[in-house]
Amino acid sequence: MASIYGNILKVETTGASQQTANQDGLRMAGVSASHELARADLNRVSQYKRIITKVARAHQIDPAVIAAIISRETRGGSEHVDKRRHTPEGGWDSEQHLNQGTEILVSSIKQIQVKFASWSKEQQLKGGLAAYNMGASNVPSYQGIDSNTHMKDYSNDVVARAQFYKRNGF
């Protein structure tokens, strides 16, 4: 499915930090670590494939991106809506909840498109992922895209996981 927000396979990424990779006791970091984390979550994330695809189609975003967020946020539970900033809708694993999380993501991407209009669609997609995690006002530049994100690797890790999921059925 085509995304109006850029091609996830063309987004540059450094992948997961060692701190993120340590979740599974991995002795590697980077893209290969993100791919291993995504592989470990593949069966759990695949349980949501039908609703991921439906929600992705409705929002014109790549289902692999949603799958990657689910992997990063809950290791395959469902997309996580930050209760500090939003009132979660629906059950934690419902289509309604997944739709809400995707609406927040799309809003974050659109904020980055305005803030960094000269960036490519792929850069804006990556910036939107960082903004989804920490807010658009905390994305200082492309070079510092993850400087304020959780474990300082959120967008890079999610991009690498999304690339894995794109190549594995999403």
From TrEMBL:
Keywords: Antimicrobial, Bacteriolytic enzyme, Glycosidase, Hydrolase. CDD domains: GEWL. Residues 75-96 are annotated as: Disordered. Its EC number is 3.2.1.17. One of its GO terms (cellular component) is extracellular region. It comes from the Eukaryota. GO terms for molecular function: lysozyme activity. GO terms for biological process: defense response to Gram-positive bacterium; killing of cells of another organism; peptidoglycan catabolic process. InterPro entries: Glyco_hydro_23, Lysozyme-like_dom_sf. It catalyses: Hydrolysis of (1->4)-beta-linkages between N-acetylmuramic acid and N-acetyl-D-glucosamine residues in a peptidoglycan and between N-acetyl-D-glucosamine residues in chitodextrins. Belongs to the glycosyl hydrolase 23 family. This is Lysozyme g. It comes from Synaphobranchus kaupii (Kaup's arrowtooth eel).
